[in-house]
C-alpha cells in the first residue's frame, strides 16, 4: 500500500507539469500517430501477432519519466476491447509509478499493451491496479512470429511494447500503477461513464474510428504475414 501511495504522489507531481494540455481527443489523436509509427517498424510482426489474438488493446501515446534522485513516470492512455470482431470503448486511464536512484533529466516513451484475456481488462476498470502484483504483465515477444514465449509471458495477462526514438522493443512495467481516468471518460462520453460500462459500449463514435481502422490494419498485417509463411512452407516442402 505504501508503494502505491508513493507512486501516486510522484504521478501527481509529474502529471501536473507534463499533461496540463491533454484532452480525451488529443489522447486519441496521439495514439493514432504513435500506432502509425510502431507499425512502420521492421520487427513489428511479433507485436502484430499478439495484438491480433488480444482481447483488448491499450495505448499510452506518451509516458514521461522525469526526476532528480527521486523520480516518477506518468502517462494517460485509452483501452479498447475487441470481442468477436467488434470493438468496444474507449475507456481512459492513467498509468505511473515511482523510481529511485541517481537520475536526472526526462525522457518520453510510447507504449502499447496487448491485453490477452478478460482478467487483464479488469486492471483497467478497477480504481487502482499495480501491474505485476495485482495482474500478470510481461514484456511482449518481438521478432519474426514471436514463437519463443517464456514462462512469465505464458502466465501474463498483458504484454507490453514500447517505442522511443525509433527503437521498438518489449518493455516490463512491473510495479506501475493503473487508475481509471474519470475526468477523461466524462469528457469523451459527455456524462459520467464507469470504465466497465464504457468497455461494453460499441465503439461507433467517429472520433475513435480512425484508431480502430489502424488497429485493424495492424491485425491484417499479421494475417498476411502468416499466409506468406504458410505458402513458403508449402513451397519448400514440395
Q: What would you say this structure looks like, in words?
A:
With 238 residues, the chain is of the alpha+beta class. The protein has helices at residues 2-18, 24-39, 45-52, 118-121, 151-155, 182-189, 195-198, 209-237; strands at residues 56-68, 70-83, 86-99, 104-115, 129-130, 137-139, 158-164, 167-170, 177-180. Strand 7 and strand 8 form a beta hairpin. It is globular and about 40 Å long. Mean pLDDT is 78; it is low at 2-11, 13-20, 100-104 and 144-152.
Helix fraction, binned, reads 25-40%
- Compressed to H and E, one letter per element, the order equals HHHEEEEHEEHEEEHHH
- By DSSP (H or I, 4+ residues per run), the number of helices equals 8
What assembly state would you assign to the polypeptide chains in this entry? single chain
What does the main sheet amount to?
9 strands, mixed
**Beta-strand level of the residues, as a percent range?**
25-35%
* Shape field: globular
Distance linking N and C termini: 61 Å
Task: Please tell me the overall pLDDT.
Answer: 78
Report the count of strand segments. Answer: 9
Low-confidence parts, pLDDT < 50 over ≥5 residues?
2-11, 13-20, 100-104, 144-152
Kindly name the structural category: alpha+beta
Rg calculated over all Cα atoms: 18 Å
Short description:
The protein has 238 residues and is an alpha+beta fold. It contains eight helices and nine strands. Helix 2 runs parallel beside helix 8 and helix 3 packs across helix 8.
